[in-house]
User: What shape does this take?
Amino acid sequence: KQEVTQIPAALSVPEGENLVLNCSFTDSAIYNLQWFRQDPGKGLTSLLLIQSSQREQTSGRLNASLDKSSGRSTLYIAASQPGDSATYLCAVRPGGSQGNLIFGKGTKLSVKP
Amino acid sequence: DTGVSQDPRHKITKRGQNVTFRCDPISEHNRLYWYRQTLGQGPEFLTYFQNEAQLEKSRLLSDRFSAERPKGSFSTLEIQRTEQGDSAMYLCASSFFRGADTQYFGPGTRLTVL
Assistant: This one.
């Protein structure tokens, strides 16, 4: 059974710092991995999607990497800003699945001015 | 492109009542998903449609839950005889099954069962 773990559960950093969020999954047979952002009481915003054949994806100050064999992904946020404060969720789509995602519990990020 | 929309955004009901939620996916998206999220947890998959066909259901989807997607457009999720344990955020997502198949989520419906 695929399980997704995110460490740390919460992170507080001063504005301007670069930071890394970690995601691990137990079964390397995945179709893709997606990172989301969730603001309090809101839905999810897709940030980056990495296909199983890819090693990384970049969008602006965000960079996500995937090491499928070791069951790990990282989300790197450069030059953090207070507006980056949110919960970041990692989700994997298992290989052979019809499309449902399996989520971690998220990392709650607070960027202090 | 207005994104995925859900209605209502909030629903408060008494235990034992029936509730129905609606999701309108991004136009042209042929896949539609329902998830449930409780406080401090990641979303959990409930069910999934490709066009009008319901192709997968989670074990979380008890007999009190039913979902439809008539004509492959909007979808409804009905919960019968609600229980306090049904209190959660119900999220809908849609995707276009071609290439990346990125899922785009709606704002969610927050259900509170008293």
